[in-house]
Fold this sequence. Notes:
CATH class: Alpha Beta
Number of helices: 8
Structural class: alpha/beta
CATH superfamily: Spore Coat Polysaccharide Biosynthesis Protein SpsA, Chain A
Number of domains: 1
Distance between the termini: 37 Å
Number of strands: 7
CATH architecture: Alpha-Beta Complex
CATH topology: Spore Coat Polysaccharide Biosynthesis Protein SpsA, Chain A
Shape: globular
Strand order of the largest sheet: 3-2-1-4-6-5-7
Strand content: 5-15%
Amino acid sequence: MYCVAVSFTIILPTLNESKNIGVLIDQIFEVFSELDDFHILVIDDQSTDDTQTEVTAISNVNNKVRLVIRDNPDGLTGAIKQGILIANTEFVGWMDADGSMPASALLNLWKAFDSKTDLTVGSRFVTGGGFKGVTEESRNPISVYKNLKQSNDSIIAMLLSRALNKFLRLILTNRIKDLTSGFIIIRRNKLVLLDLQGYYGEYCPIFLYKCLQRNLKILEVPYINEPRKFGVSKTGTNLITLLRTGIPYITSAVKARLGSLRL
């Protein structure tokens, strides 16, 4: 579907990503060079580093980049929703700004659309995809371990995230393999803001589950999630913070499932 006449906005929520955001924006524009009506919307949650300075410098020379600084940040989900409200293109998407979701993978999500597809999801768990530490050259557990040890991501975070995703599939649906993806492109007219609920990443499994309930055609596109090179994960790096982050995923999924059973 890669048509230059189609309009598309990608939303990048940011919080202290000064060393990642500029590189990512450059890479995204490089792979989307042929798309005429393409925009990047950076929604910043009061970063205390140089994120805002970096994006402002880029937007001063590129009118397709816009920075929005939120007055009252209320979490990742709120940032995504605000970006959606601002975007007025036919397609809208969002992805992490930490470099873990490559620009080349975003292009693959875009190219995967056909006339019947409503939504594409970057998936680590379909054939060809991979979690942090995996590379195109090797999926060997020892190599994965070494790659993560050399990055700013933790091994325990990777293991718990995989376990959480499997548990959510048991609660909600096994029709989607990567319920915690957070890497999405959707037709703007198919998007219901009420489907986006929560504070952090727990919005994603509920959002995808509700999209299935509305009979949207969802296509999972494989990508390899890359380790963070700079900065600190917002999810957490130790067991206690990771468990605290994971609890809302489980409670919101249980509520959504029980709500569906009552219908």
